[in-house]
Amino acid sequence: MKAQPSPSKPDNLHIWKRDLRDSRIRPFGRYITTFDWSPILDIHDCDTKYEKFNDTMTVMIEKFFPLEQIKVRKCDKPWMTSSIKFAIGRRQKALHESGKNSDIYKYWGNRVQSSIRVARKIYYMRSVEKLKNSNQARWWKEVKAIGGLSSKNSWYSQLFSDDVRNCEELAENFDNFLTALTSHFDPLTLDEIQEGLEVPNHYLVDAQQIYRKLSKIKTTKSPGPDMFPNKILKKFAFELAPVISDIFNSSMTQGTFPKALKRSIVVPVPKVSPPKSIEDDLRPIYLTSQVAKVMEDCTLDNFFPEVVNKLDTKQYALPKKSTTHALVYLLHSILVALERGSCTARLFFADFKKGFDLVDHNVIIKELTLLGTHPSIIRWIKAFLCDREQCVRVGTSMSSWKKTNGGLPQGTKLGPLLFAVLINSLLKNWPGRIKFVDDTSALEIIPRFSPSLMPLVVNEISDYALERGMELNYKKCKQMLINFLKYKGSYDENPIYVAGKPVETVSSFKLLGVWISNDLSWNTHVDMILKKANSRLIRIASVKKGWSSSISHRPNIYLIHQIQN
Q1: Which Pfam families match (predicted)?
Q2: Cα 473 to chain centroid, rounded
């Protein structure tokens, strides 16, 4: 009998995890509830205070929840267990030593199949029961994982070349690219502490306010550079609230922000599949400390009421407004004008190059001053923005830490509002405008036989951006003409230029998640939804596999409903 060749082993992936089961949390709870925070509370300097808190928390977490290395297969199914892996190993060993016709091979083969059937049924049933009472985001994430809609394949291998040979070099190159974007900006510097600067009492917080914010932490979110598990911060909000409130109050009164909280881990996510360029096809996602987000939220509670009534009324990225409001306003303005007749609608869709990543901190501070923001808030935001550091993580590889001269980390609480402040006065005298954070669009209603003013509007946008260190991306800026007149006319004599290059005219454009067409029909939007739905229909069979017929219809309904929304 000819021995079978030894089977090749799939690649192993080693990951580090903390065991956060209740059996581990209970001893930690007994310890932290009796812990004396007074040595930290007695420290005056904010940086030293937080450094001591960070060291104390790190020691606690490492003691009760040490990192444990777990070996998993890159191709593991979600229902895979160690017992099934053991049975598979025995089956493969029997195949190699005794052949496929041997009794021992048949025994372990049957054992593997029966174990998989049981494990699959248990996993799917438990997942469905768990998802029934979970939120939509969690449901959608689990359904995608079960049905194979979310791929775990490594995208970064598509960017490997002679210059970028591995993940370490890719992470370093992307970090260099991000920091180079703002290297020409003058770094923000902290002035000497202003003597006699009074901080209003209502800017300070008590433990109860911090407790409420810690209690709202989403435990499914990734931790920041401090690696404090969100589950621990939320579960022990009552115990941690007094010391975190003291840190924030010291930060506000001293006009400083702890250096350790200024760090961000950047995780690149591909915009297209497959990505071809580091510069154009990767979107940076910033992971910041959850404690920093809580402190931002406290500042936002006082900062937002001061500026909300001074912000552009056409800025829709604010509370009680949404993308729906922006789109309804835009389409209503177009339809009302076209119903009157004898006019054409011309739209310009602006795209700021690198958006949040190309922002001058000094300009932000200047705009805040012009809005009349309280000096103590400006001082705190200045401390929050200056001397920030970041590194890039690709897979398990990390780049070196680098300082940045500008940019607003995406994912921070203050980022969207600060960008809204940055473009607040943009097109302030042009009525046909809508803004949603960094998305800006201009609408012009052109009477019959009248020249278009849109080139002047675009020049104003371009000049505004250049004055503030920003830049329009001519490749992504588009224009659209909506014209139902019998005499169409020509706007070739009034073209739009960005950076000396003509702006492309399109028949449809995706604005804030909705496709707008120049015939004002919904055909393109519906076609895009159907295309997305059709690409997923084949996955529904794999979602249903392993579920009983009484509940198998649930994922079908949800998949289609999610796409329609």
Answers
A1: RVT_1
A2: 21
Instruction: Identify the three-state secondary structure at position 390.
Output: strand
Sequence-distant (≥ 6) Cβ neighbours of residue 243 within 8 angstroms: 37, 40, 41, 53
Q: Please provide residue 435's backbone torsions phi and psi, each rounded to the nearest 5 degrees.
A: -130, 140
Sign of CA dihedral 80, 84, 88, 90: positive
> Which DSSP letter does residue 313 get?
T
Strand partners, 141: none
Cβ-proximal residues to 235 (8 Å cutoff; 6+ apart), any chain:
25, 29
Give the Cβ contact number of residue 79 at 10 Å: 18
> Which span out of 13-27, 122-136, 288-302, 542-556 was modeled with the highest average pLDDT?
288-302
Give the pLDDT band of residue 185 (cuts 50, 70, 90). Answer: very high
Q: Among candidates 207, 208, 296, 304, which has minimal Cα distance to 252?
A: 296
Q: Name the amino acid, one letter, at 550.
A: S
Rounded-to-integer distance, Cα 121 and Cα 189, Å: 60
**Alpha carbon distance 149, 424 (integer Å):** 40
333 has pLDDT over 90: yes
CA dist., res. 307 & res. 70, Å (int):
49
Residues linked to residue 390 through DSSP beta bridges, in sequence order: 264, 402
Q: Which of 74, 100, 68, 105 shows the shortest CA–CA distance to 89?
A: 105
Please give the model's pTM, rounded to 2 decimal places: 0.82
List pLDDT tens digits, range 428-485.
Answer: 999 999 999 989 999 999 998 888 999 999 999 999 999 999 999 999 999 999 998 8
Residue 559, both tokens: 């998949």
Span 59-75, average pLDDT: 81
Q: What residues have CB less than 8 Å from 492, skipping those under 6 apart?
A: none
